[in-house]
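Bit of a strange request maybe. I'm writing a small parser for structure token strings and I need a real example to test against, not something I typed by hand. Could someone generate the tokens for this chain?
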Amino acid sequence: MNIEEYAEILKALGHPVRLKIVCGLMRKDNCSVNIMAEKLNISQPVVSQHLNVLKNAGIIAGYRKMNRVCYRLENDKVRQIIRILGEELCEQL
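Reply from user aminoacidic:
Good idea to test on real output. This should exercise your parser:
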């Protein structure tokens, strides 16, 4: 990856809600929008907007599971970035 690609990833991670989503997906292999909205205590449309930013940055991917869409962390570089920042980052959230 070049510096521009890292900058795009960091920009996508640069919002507290998106960081919480990524941390949650590191702990749990996949999750639906409704569960995320409930855990984060924000509306489903707001979660969907944040998921779109993460998806467009190539950080997460969505897939169908029965009648709902679930998301999973797809980018190993993001896993490394979060680990470098420290596990306590996600524990705070």
